[in-house]
UniProtKB/TrEMBL annotation:
Protein name (record): Abasic site processing protein
Species of the source: Cohnella luojiensis
Keywords: Covalent protein-DNA linkage, DNA damage, DNA-binding, Hydrolase, Lyase, Protease
Database matches in Gene3D superfamilies: SOS response associated peptidase-like
Enzyme Commission no: 3.4.-.-
């Protein structure tokens, strides 16, 4: 699964690049975003494109680890199909992390887009109501296949025109929406070694995205 990513854009750049009309939540640059945390998301609210935040991971009855949804299953499961047709969002991302197994060691790598400093990952969301009817928005990232010969799922990326259609609340045709979800070639991405401490979800500093020599990215398991 795709289980770590970063969002390092300045708010001014984010609002300009994604044509965000209104910011509803405090925004800070994030270097090691982890499952179950609150993450920035973009959604259409009426005539405005807004920056909000949702819990990363569907819960409670899908489990806290439902942080990814494979595009191949969106049409097969009723709850996913319902979110696809009615509750879509975009998760802005500057890069995501993967771990490569090398014998008895594994190494940490960051994946970035070669031409986009921040890109749009498609997401779907729901709102869980607790016993007191308090609302808890939650989302998941749509993925396909695996990334760079690992068992990590590869997030899909929306181009600008596709993002416009994805956020269009009037579009409810499952087939049309799924047609927007196309994988990009791995050649469009660059990978580089990072410190293995990014696996610690408690660490969130610019050092997480710093490039290091590949030999320093290894950790024995």
């Amino acid at each position: 699964m795709c289980n770590r990513f970063s969002l390092t854009a300045e708010l001014s750049d984010l609002t300009e690049d994604f044509r965000i009309d209104r910011v509803h939540v405090p925004y800070t640059r994030r270097y090691n975003i982890s499952p179950t945390q609150q993450i920035p998301i973009i959604q259409q609210m009426g005539e405005e494109r807004c920056l909000n935040q949702h819990r990363w991971g569907l819960m409670p009855y899908w489990g806290k680890n439902s942080i990814n949804a494979s595009v191949d299953t969106l049409g097969d499961r009723n709850y996913l199909r319902n979110m696809l047709t009615k509750k879509r969002c975009v998760i802005p991302c500057s890069g995501f992390y993967i771990w490569k197994q090398e014998g008895k060691s594994k190494s940490a790598w960051r994946v970035v887009h070669r031409s986009k400093t921040t890109f749009a990952m498609p997401g779907i969301y729901d709102v869980w109501l607790d016993s007191e009817r308090n609302e808890f928005p939650m989302c998941t990232v749509i993925t396909r296949g695996s990334a760079f010969d690992t068992d990590h799922a590869l997030p899909l990326i929306l181009e600008e025109e596709s993002m416009e259609a994805w956020l269009n609340q009037k579009e409810t045709r499952s087939e049309a929406l799924q047609s927007l979800l196309q994988s990009l070639p791995e050649a469009d991405f660059r990978t580089y070694s990072v410190n293995p401490f990014v696996e610690d979800r408690g660490l969130e500093t610019p050092d997480c995205i710093a490039e290091i020599h590949p030999s320093l990215s290894l950790v024995k398991i």
